Amino acid sequence: MICKYRPGTDGKLNSEASRKSSRRIRTRKISSDNMKPFQCQKCGRGFTLKRNKDRHVNYECGHEPRFQCPYCGLRSKQTSPVYAHIRKKHPEEEVFIFDMKL
């Protein structure tokens, strides 16, 4: 098990930055997976970039969640949702995660 620290984080959000991001409206073009040029052979999910498909195949599709919150056990296949979870649900705690792969 390896602990991963995110440098420069103290577990507290910048209030100005959080206000700006809450006002931001996200617009996303939704397209069908079968219209995307790179397809996962296991699950059929489509990707616009080859590197995203490769990441999905190597780390996500058919794999157990690899990264875990050290405070409550939440697990994810990617690090960023765990870091965001820690900042939101455990604001007074140090921001790091466990890598369950090793």
Give your account of this protein's structure.
The chain is an alpha+beta fold and 102 residues long. Among the domains are: 36-63; 66-101, no CATH class. 30% of the residues lie in helices and 16% in strands. The protein contains three helices and six strands. The chain has helices spanning 15-23, 50-60, 79-89, and strands spanning 2-5, 38-39, 46-47, 67-68, 75-76, 96-99. A four-stranded antiparallel sheet has the order 1-6-4-5. A two-stranded antiparallel sheet has the order 2-3. It starts with a strand and ends with a strand. The mean pLDDT is 82.
Mean pLDDT: 82
Specify the structural class: alpha+beta
Strand percentage lies at 15-25%
- The residue fraction in helices comes out at 25-40%
Largest sheet: 4 strands, antiparallel
Give the strand order of the largest sheet, numbering strands 1, 2, ... along the chain: 1-6-4-5
Helices, by number, come to 3
Radius of gyration, in angstroms, nearest whole number? 17 Å
Shape: globular
In total, the number of strands is: 6
- H and E order: EHEEHEEHE
Low-confidence stretches: none
Ends apart, CA distance between termini: 5 Å
